[in-house]
Structures
1.
Amino acid sequence: MIRAAAFRPITAWVSAHPVASFVVFFAAFPFLVPYQSLATQVLIFGLFALGFNLLYGYTGLLSFGHAAYYGLGAYGAGIALAKVKVTSLWLALGMGLTAAVIGGALVGFFCLRRRGIYFAMLTLAFAQMLYFIAFHAADLTGGDDGLRGIPLHPLGLAGWSVSLRTPLAFYFFAYALVVLAVAALKRILDSPFGAVLQAIRENSDRAVACGYDINRIKLLSFVFSALFTGLAGALDALRLTVVPVDSLYWTTSGQVVIMTLLGGAGTFFGPFVGAATFLILADRLSLVIEAWPLVIGVIFMAFVLFLPRGIWGTLVARGVER
Amino acid sequence: MFDIPLSALAAQAFTGLVLGGIFVLMAIGLSLIFGLMTVVNFAHGSFYMLGAYVAFSLMGLTKSFWAALVLAPLVVGALGFLVERFLIRRLYGRSPDDPLLLTFGLSLAMVEGAKLIWGKIGLQVDPPKQLAAAVNLGFMNFPVYRLFVIAVTAAVLVSLWLFLEKTSIGLIIRAGSRDALMVRALGVDLNRVWLLVFGLGIAMAGLAGVLAGPMRGVYAEMGVEIIIDSFVIVVVGGMGSLAGAIIAGLLMGEIVSLTTFFAPKLAELIIFIVMAIVLLVRPSGLFGEAGLAE
């Protein structure tokens, strides 16, 4: 077992100053991993998992279809740059976010008609529906080949024009946006709205009895979740300069579920810890064994059975207990 | 509309019935397991896939389709026993999301495991010689094998109905899905019933896979493709309702098959569209009780 006592002072400080910890750690992060594009990937997938975690970890709604908002964000930004030919990255990101938010609101409206297990199956079904639409709408999305030829224009920043073509420049561009997202999440969770979300997770009947319109609040949580997820998708479209159609496939939804649970659902840093664990593990494993998802699947099952709080969740819980 | 030959339409409707049969075998197992144990088995499709692969290997070993047809569901069902006993049983009393997550991991591992054992390239399975011909139904020629699939599905459904309605174990299963606590209080060891039902549902998924193999080919992702369709069917039929699973399964088989005929591009989308409409009109599904396990 991990010697948790050694981590206690660190987890305590980090829990007390989450946003500052995030800013410090991820400023150093690209220099700690084997290569910088892996660091960017961790940041983007961490943001994706953060969006998922707002809905699952904090509101208690298990979505198996978050690929939808990730894909909408990616296609939104990608289509803006490659098809509509906008030249501003900000405008492209904005279009990605808009697509994700509209998609989230529509799907959320349908899926929130059912609770619990049904919700999980419905979100999965709607995401698959979107996948098939993207697959067949080849004129717009590139279909099976994916959306190719997304130009990475220089970023307009207060009159300056910044090139993002080096991995490190792109990392810090993503870093700035993810820091904003993390700060926004902190703000949401600390607000009365955030408290109601967690009340719904703990006991939704009681939240109704307290007079909250929980359907509206759940929908709002769904839309916020889609917003964060869409930002991750849009950033990933810029990182890869291509949107593979698999972005919308259920395997992408599955990945974010795995990442979040490995790190710790319902914890602030769990999504990033999980994304880093998953991506670094996948990166190393794929060198050794071709069937690496088999190993990931078994590890994931072990986590569900024996370590349901995840890595970060377990560290934090042990810090609190002693 | 009228220039489409009636025989082509009838053939398509028959094909829909075959697809519907496979859907029903899948959905009824899912629904049975859910109704009794509130476990949503994401790996259900992977057991379907495993059934098809195991049948393929057994056919190679025994040179007999019939041996594979009987043995493969038993092998897969036995594996289902192990999964319930050593994995899912640990999760009773936890959130209903947890078995779904666990079986999701299991499904991932099974797909990759199948690729390791049987290779990444899909396999072709021929129907047995006795069923390879086509039969003239008067208005069209139809492959005998597909008629056989319909017959097997019907036989399984009748047996299941007799088992649930006429045997004392069936009585316990029905009672257990109504009120597990009360059944326990009467001194019934529900753990053994759950084990049995899980194995039974998995064996039916295995059988569906064996039957589907010669029609749709055998490949590692065949299971995750059908599990999503099956989820949609149980949501439309009403989760936990066996009648709902049967009717929604047959209905979806027909809808998919006829859409393939009239508008091929819509074929993959149509079940989701039907699902959205049903959800708007009847959120608890065609035959579902409102509020079951919510």
Note: Residues 11-281 of chain B form a domain with the ABC transporter involved in vitamin B12 uptake, BtuC fold (CATH 1.10.3470).
2.
Amino acid sequence: MNILETEGLYHDFSGLLVLFDVNLEVKEGERHAIIGPNGAGKTTLFNVITGTYSPSRGRVTFKGKEVTGWKPHNLTRVGMGRSFQITSTFSRLTTFQNIRMGILSKRRIRFNLFRKVDKMQNITEETDDVLKRINLDGERDLPASMLSYGKHRSLEISMALATDPDLVMLDEPTAGMSRDETHHAVELIRRLTEGKTVVIIEHDMDVVFSLADRITVLHLGHILASGPPGEIRESQAVKDAYLGETEV
Amino acid sequence: MRNNLSRWIYWVVGLVILAIYPQVVGIYYTNVFVGFAIFGLYAVTLNLLLGYMGVLSFGHAMFFGAGAYSTALALTHIQGFPLLPALLVGGLAGAMLALILCPLLVRVSGTAFAMLTLAFGQLIFVIALKYREVTGGEDGVGGYPIPSFNIPGVVSIDMTDQINFYYFAVTVIIVCLWLLWFYTKTPFGSLVVGVRDNAMRIDYLGFKLPQTKAVNLIVSGCFAGIAGAIYALFQNLVSTLGVLDIGTSFAPILMAYIGGLGSFFGPIVGSAILHLLEDVTFRITEQIELVNGLVFILVVLFAPMGIVGLLRQAKAKWFHKEKVS
């Protein structure tokens, strides 16, 4: 079954067509990578699916329900999570408080004005659990802005997962990471997304081919090819558009 | 356990000092203290927007003024209007005004928020100035009866007595400050801080951004209104120049910055400093704004986190040294 589908998705920025008839299908439980050269429209596709923009035309279906133009908070509430290419945490809050925000959302604690959040034992325990699983328990009380780049990125990814979504959209999770950090991040993603559907934008081909079950290639706002890694690796059209360039 | 005990000791010592304060310093400084406490509460409500939610309100006086005018008008026109409802009317007026404005205010942040609040603040100032039949124009509303604190059959305390009023005002303000402090510690309070740091992420985590901002605005407006109501009871005169003018909007901004935005109690410290400064300055010159402005510039230049930030830094340094040695 497809957990996420887009049908004939178009998006333009005041006349500049960025997405052009995008038909994306993401099966439940798969790890789906979206690759493509810079400016192919990958992040815009993410933004249209996750509610930053409404598409100019077309439909987005999530879990069999049409969610075209839904706002991010509504999409989060029905089980979509997203991380950002440019790290977007609560920079002045501690690592613990960052993750706790996601846990509060997951537990649907929003307009609670009658208890101190620090005294909510179950929330604190769950947050500490998450911190341990992502190896950030040593940085528990450090402001997010003081974390090393790699750890900050881990926090970014983990916040998207803290709300316990069924579908996780990761926008270049390893952007700017060193070899070592990338390796750790991939392990982290593999571990945390067990049993979830993942859509991931990625430039690092090693990451893509080691992580993805299926790959979609986006080129100039259009889907060039979609299929299992082996098939994409062999595709001449993809080589011409994208993979070939990296060999030069 | 020990922590709990020391906290109790702080509370008891603090309350004892507050209780004997008027007996020690005399009536003049008792009134100075009430003024400081009112503005302390008022500045804290501004800091709910500035320090906690990250938006600067240049028209905060409209909430303060709405509270002050509502209380004054209720006392003028309704015979025998009791004391506590008079306070609630002020809080309600501030909250209502915030509720009316929030559809616009929650959609903007940064400079646009500052300009919108400035515009509405000035608009309400002019309305109060021109709508003489109700507000009395420049003369304001004054001379209304101040009700006694009445529990039928138990006690009736005369609030025109300045010492009695001191105890009443300080009690109300401490309760309000405690409520607001608790508010910042709730899950919702942590959400508001999240809005300050990264509003987009709050949305992506599944929280409704406009509603979150609206509730915080209304809470801020409500307690600013209560501060205004206490002011109205304290002064027995409410006029545009005292409660709605731009100076009344800027005062809590100065207090919050000088005391420290990063802390709940910073604005109270700021209020104390400015009130003391005013008292000292007045003996030498009338140019209070000049002195306030200089202090503001010095704080921004040398202690951008305010006096409380400076103290925290000093404390951290001191404890650090101790550890090293």
Note: Chain A has nine helices and eleven strands.
3.
Amino acid sequence: MTYLPNIIFAIVLFFGIGYFVRNVRKLVRNINLGQEKHVRDNKGQRWKNMALIALGQSKMVRRPIAGLLHIIVYLGFIIINIEVLEIIIDGLLGTHRIFSGIGSLYGVLIGSFEILALLVLGAVGLFWIRRNIIRLKRFVMPEMKGWPKNDANIILYFEVVLMCLFLIMNATDNAFQVSGNGNIVSQYITPLFVGLSESSVHLIERSAWWLHIIGILIFLNYLYYSKHLHILLAFPNTYYGSLNPKGQFDNLESVTNEVKMMMDPNVDPFAAPAAGSTEVPAKFGASDVQDLNWLQLLNAYTCTECGRCTSECPANQTGKKLSPRKIMMDTRDRLEEVGKNIDANNGEFKDDGKQLLDDFITREELWACTSCNACVEACPVSIDPLSIIMDMRRYLVMEKSAAPVELNNMMTNIENNGAPWPYNQMDRLNWKNE
Amino acid sequence: MSELLKVPTMAEFMAQGKQPEVLFWVGCSGSFDDRAKKITKAFVKLLNKANVEFAVLGTEESCTGDPAKRSGNEFLFQMQAVTNIEVMNAYEIKKIVTACPHCFNTIKNEYPELGGDYEVLHHTQFLKSLLDDGRLTIEGGKFKGKRITFHDPCYLGRANNVYEAPRDLIKKLEAELIEMRKCKKNGLCCGAGGAQMFKEPEKGDKDVNIERTEQALDTKPDIIAAGCPFCNTMMTDGVKAKEKESDIKVMDVAELIANADDI
């Protein structure tokens, strides 16, 4: 019987982590539905970017209030997790506060966890007020209704509950309070339990301990269904983020090949494809998530819907439908839908008559973009909504010939006159004599 | 004044068996747009004054393909790119300067992969180097003490991290450089990029250039300085819409320098 809690703990831990691993595999599978993209160059710079942007939060603090609050919650999250390690060891071995043997250092550690827990509670409270009382514009935009709004609040409630359980667990741990080693915050909570019998206090302590670890496991598994995945994916996403100047858009290789053939006088324009060639002509641009590359799909899962991109977007600021955040949210929603479709059809995607274009992202949104890169610059975790917009424009123009009429005129002018306006190329130097 | 401009072409240089120091890529706007042609001429005056051996492609120049690419027409872009690269490689071009950030970005960043490797400079960077090397001198002249705000072109600033060259030039005029609330990395677009220049905007409550012009007007400037012919058009239209065109001028940085002592 004495081993029963250890066994229950091991089972809870096994299923908690097991289900998470299952979801991570699904996540990786979905991201790999995207096209190949090679980003293995310049590892040094990539590690540096990850260290600065994700670990160092360098872009978060561009907005000082949100940045500071976020750093508190982020530090709290990372540091308090050292405590989780102790909980897991205690749970499996049936020990109690196994690290307390290290003496005064333990007090310093737990003491700083307690202070952080209190700071996190404060920061989360302010976050909640910003979202629900002050209602900052970027949190109440059209794409933030329903699940995205609830998701954001659920995350905050989770954090409040976990921090409270951590402090209550410490406050009701009699031996810990008696030792006076690290109970900086919890000593002020202990008086709340005065008058209860020793066994009731112990019961509260045990319950808080169990609920804390179970809560953490539930939160871990909540991630996959939530925008909160960024706590994990921000790291690979900043690592793989573009190292090129922002103005550099990729040159489509498939097009380069065609253009080379067109310019090469030795190519036989009527040549039949080589016998046995099963090569399917590449599709130009993207109409659905599978046409995007894996990095764009990773971007979509990494987005935590903070809306900094949208609040910097010139189109959005002037009332157009385009919202870069919605581009990312739509991409993820469609990718999830495709993933579920594959799960339901034994590993193969069955056409559902839907696609990312039109069913999720409208043409009006795509054509409103000025390609100014404000959204890319604003993202604290190196997401690039512009590349998705460009790939979808490419599909519209090259596969569907569906550019706005004025743009078609502009392109016809370039084709015929070498300028976007109907002027003759032979007049290009006339300004000299005017 | 036009007879004073020396604008040799690459073909002329080639005929003499010479190579210019730099190719001036004029761009479509600089060649055809009435307002932008003035910028082109101002820049040429400065090149002439500094005795820079430059050449233009003239009728051999064609659109870089930028608006086609940003519209999604990768085919047309690459056709344009490959054609331009063939011409420039035939002339063995090494160094290019242009007054258009869109041409600048495209040739600098997107041409190398297609076989066109050149050193590419924005005209503000080039002018800065002329000043630094003492080949060109300016004094404050008539812009001394004037309030000038600089609008960052997206394809120069955020796209290529060039923020200081145009500002250094404005400071050389002994003018008072005042920054807009949204500047440099956080600069707001003028509304022309991504081929928006060539189409009507989508439905909204305001045009982007009006929003940006309002931000510029908040600084109470005498002059709004630009570094891009398209931004120039958008901001000029914005100032007109606000009926401020008699008080506030929109000028390219090259024009400011050329006009400073009326060369």
Note: Chain A touches chain B through 69 residues (CB under 8 Å).
4.
Amino acid sequence: MSSVRLEVLWSPVHKDKFITWGTEISLYETSEKCGDIRRTDYVDLSETSSARLLATNSSYHYVKAVDIHPMEGSEILLAIGQANGKVSLTTFGPSNFDFLGINGMDMVPKHPRQCNVVSWCQNDPQLIAAGLDRYRSDHCVLVWDIQSRTGAAVVAEMGLSDMAHSLTWLPDHHKTLVVGMNNKLLKMIDLRDPSKAACSSQTKAVYGVTAAPYSNFMLASYLESQVSIWDIRAFEKPVLTLLQSKPITKILWCPTRNNLLGSLQRDTKSIYLHYIQQMEELDHSVVERSIRPGVSHQITSFSWHPLDENRLLAITLSGLVTDTYVSERITLNWAQSTSIVWTHGQRTLQSVSCTDSVYEMLGDISALMKLRATRGYGLQYEMEENGDLVDDENLKLIWRWLGATKRLSDEFNINLPTRHLGIRSVLGMDKTTPSSISTKSEAVLVPFNGAGSNCNAKVYRSDVRDKALKLCDWSFIHNLPQLLHAVESLQSQGEVTKAVAVAVFGLQLNTAIKLLSSSTSEHTTISMALSGYSNDNESVWRDACIASRLKLNDPYLRAVFAFLTADSDNYNSVLEEEEMAVTDRIAFALAYLSDSKLVEYLNKLTDQLTVDGNLAGLILTGMSSSALPLLQQYLDSTGDVQSVAIFTMKGFPPSLLESNRAQYWISSYRELLDMWRLWDHRAQFDIQHNARTSLKPEQQIYVTCSFCMKTLSSNAFSRNKGPFPRTKVSCCPNCRKPQPRCSICLINMGTPSQSDASNCNSNNGGMKINTFSSWYTWCQTCRHGGHSKHIIQWFEDHQECPVTGCTCRCLSLDATSFTV
Amino acid sequence: MFESHSVSTDHKDLIHDVAFDHYGRRMATCSSDQFIKVWEMDSDNSIDGGWKLSATWKAHSGSVWKVTWAHPEFGQVLASCSFDRTAAVWEEIVSEQNIYSQTGQKHWAKRTTLVDSRMSVMDIKFAPKSLGLLLATCSVDGIIRIYEAPDVMNLAQWTLQQEVPCKHQASCISWNPSYTRPEVPMLAVGSDEAAAAGSSRVVVLHYSSYVRRWHKLENVPSVADPVHDISFAPRLGRSYDILAIATRDIRLFSICQLVGSAGTSRFEVTPFATLEDHNSTVWRVSWNSVGNVLVSSGDDGSVRIWRLSKQTSWKCVGTIKSDGRRLLLPEVMNAASLTLAKH
């Protein structure tokens, strides 16, 4: 070890001061960085802290060991062990130690030799111990009292003609030292009887002996590349030996953490941390990791901050000091749709809950689904009302479509398993004939209004195409008054470009130009471009439009020019305008594509939308089996099991609804609703679901007489058909034995099963209207019970069963009682 | 200004695990100080992030590594595992005293101690409720143990269903959270053994209902670095399972179950994504309740949030420093985040 090796040490009592020493001793003060202000007298320690040099002391040469006096509230008092064995006390500048005559005090051993270690006693800060090299007839460990009447007096000396490599005070044992001696011995010495060792252990690991701050028994020491952990109750051999790859130069226990030892190896840029796991019966194990304080040079020394959790300073060969925070293993967890919690440091938890605005940023769709569920999403009988509860345009579209198809199928009285037909089924492109349309359509030449007298467009029409257009909300395209109405309403909604596209696709160029010229200035220029339309295939106008079309930002305007510049029947550039709504593209195809091309296009589009998981594809597939892969793809990419389950429940025909996949989605969503504790929503969802399947849930509870085991309710009902229903059945109608009594009011249980005449119209004639409060309830364990209202009342004030002598804790046995 | 809520737990040593119950309204923490603490969500209370301490007890005679909740169907039940080589099952009960007090004093009673392991038990997890009341533990001796409580009303009786030896010391375990019956139960186990180069640190087991045994999946891609946490994503309607592995970075595997004609299932495990932004050891991973957002913590002292976008690509949508004071949102994702926030 050369004398220029730099060391660093936090003051044990000052939160913001540390010293470094090599050839000279420097005192620094740290502070947190404030803002971006750079102060020249400060050196950076880390991103958040910097330090200022307060003082330098260069009056001591050959400094071998330094320790800072551990007394609270005092100035920094250094004990400096030197190469000639002298231990000097000094301060930086004037201090209260001057009056005590302590500052500048020298303690000199009888014979000069190197001082290896100095250490203040934590419990008794007037004691200081020094460990020295061997001298023939002198002791190697000297303990001074700096406040005795005669100045510094030796109170104990130990180890005659031995050599001390390291020593440490035991924190919880007064006046006890552990000394590493002679390359072969760790000795524990009680100052009250310094002549002999209290106990000792034969070992070569005599360097850097240090006592763990939180444990009364744990010690660590090292030799070359091996760290030994000791328990002083079993001092014969180390409880744990940690083998490292390189020779060790320093070990230190972390003062803010149980059993965490830091070690430094020669010529490395990392500090190694060893978490010693301890069990009561002397069983130990270790978890190790290494940290890099982020320096480019080799670290020569480090020091733990005495109070701040896991903070340490490291100093490099070049004298660079870095302030590092050793981040603990962060454990974390995500509570169901409510919050994320993680640990910070050792004992603090940090959480972000769903009420914080940040949580929304994370895009947890389950929180969004929960919000929608609480609004009653999916439970509204009118399809469109469900769409009103979400903000997503794609979902709204599907709800509108579901509503439209439902009305259509009611209107046309279509007798098909599914009421929500897709365009493919409407056109007759079902599975058996995917490549043809059932009804041939006829081509009609329609004059292009406003584009010259001899200008016509070829439009294809048939019954099924008209129906399909209706599904796309484009039924107006072949009807001029409706078309103009649609254009107006689009314009009033601010969708000018779409209105223009509608007008152009409806072959009303005049209307389109008028629309554009009355709009913003940018649109006015486009109206000029439009008005120059000519259907001449070779015209300059056409070439110019083709060239500049792609520079337009608006997909509808691009589509308009693509339409106007298209070669006779080739509308590919309109159909491939992907930013245009899917329904608009389909409607365009329905109007302008020949049968064979239409089929080809719709097949391609269906495949594309299925792969993308785009919900708009449902309009093509309908709620049929070909919608399954599309919905699955949508679910896989968004996680929106809610919408998928609700579409499935509302739209699928019973045969598909009972398929495995559909049931899997539905049960997943039910699980989610249960997890959110939205049991009412879950129950309503179940009711709607069961109403659509052929499976009816079986009756789950029967009330039987405990004597004759005949059911009570059916008998009661058979007699209750008259206009004056009996209000009470307090005895078994079969054997006439009384029913059990309520344990609170002691009245026989009866079912006041009055079928309420006012509610009892022809539709729901079987519905019983009983108040919940007079229902039976009983404990599954002790079988005692009574009217539910009485029982609930009882358990508000009591813990045990109301029946005398029964100590059953009925309510607390119930898992759901937690929520009552 | 972003700031997270802070809860000071009063644990005396490092917290190793935080667990939430099924509804996310109760929280359990465990620590090296050998204690378990249970917290209730108390939304009226703004101190401590809305969490109120309801119970604290010394649970083990060594560091408590993990704590986990059973499904509420089985009552208020916790399981914990520890360095002291045991695992324990705890149940909350109303205490015998204070019969006349308005609110019953509740406390946690130890129902059983599982002592089969010869070494530290590193992780413990309850099976999804559709499988019944099952527990899986893994320990440093590399043995995965599956326990079953045949009678769900009697938490004191657990039978050791099977012991599956793995080659390496195990560190973490995860069930695939199947909610419906037809899916084959699976267990993923990670190992943090530093030595033993060349072999994979992840083992996936699946349950064969014909022979009623757990078997190892053969074709799992190799993970060469120590694994610190492993977690199946909740499935909720998705067509495949996702397994997140916290190692030197985050690995995501997708697992498809292909049901063959004879009712036998085949598994296809394929690497799905590797998320490297931590640039250091990743300690923990956790999923949202749908399984399309992942949160992870790493040695760089930060918590990162990842979201699945466009079916297969994963993006980091937020980074929070562990002190909860700084939040970084990547610029690219801002637009997407804001559109979501609008809803």
Note: The two ends of chain B are 22 Å apart (CA to CA).
